[in-house]
Design a protein that fits this description.
This is N-acetyltransferase. With 162 residues, this protein is of the alpha+beta class.
């Protein structure tokens, strides 16, 4: 079930969120970010935040926001996180599909991911399967803790308004 995220939901998901940012594999967030700062970044600044809940456990979350302001506000941006224990179960796919429907409901005509870490092969593969195109590369845009400097991709998908 995917539903709107509450403050209590974020607190429950915090151990997964913290592990993801601490690993420094996919998000350019400070690894020692506080729960309060993370909540503000993930839940208060975006337009909407959601959880993927199964059997009372929060296994994933995503946010939806405009990628830019003014004349660029018709393109949205999303971020997705799945708990380590729940990876490989199709949760990211379900959240991305859900986010595209929600984006269209809110008038967005396209979705853009600004910085997909190239070494995050599972995410890159999934976004391509879901119709995203790599429209640019940021050379050495991410300092990976094991691999050193790796590229980041800018990925884009037009959303059809039904």
């Amino acid at each position: 079930m995917i539903r709107a995220m509450t403050h209590a939901d974020f607190a429950a998901f915090w151990p997964s969120f913290k592990a993801i940012i601490h690993a420094q594999q996919s998000y350019a967030f400070e690894p020692d970010m506080s729960l309060e700062k993370a909540y503000q970044l993930w839940c208060e600044l975006p337009l909407l935040s959601y959880v993927f809940e199964q059997d009372g456990e929060i296994l994933g979350s995503y946010y939806l926001k405009a990628n830019a302001m003014g004349p660029g506000k018709h393109i949205c941006n999303c971020g997705y996180m799945v708990s380590e224990a729940a990876r490989g179960q199709g949760i990211a796919r379900k959240m991305c599909e859900h986010s595209q429907i929600e984006a269209q409901k809110h008038g967005f005509t396209a979705m853009q991911f600004n910085s997909v870490v190239s070494s995050n092969h599972a995410a890159v593969r999934l976004w391509h399967k879901l119709g995203f195109t790599t429209i640019g590369t940021i050379p050495k845009g991410y300092q990976h803790p094991q691999l050193g400097m790796v590229d980041c991709y800018i990925m884009y998908k037009a959303l059809s308004l039904a």
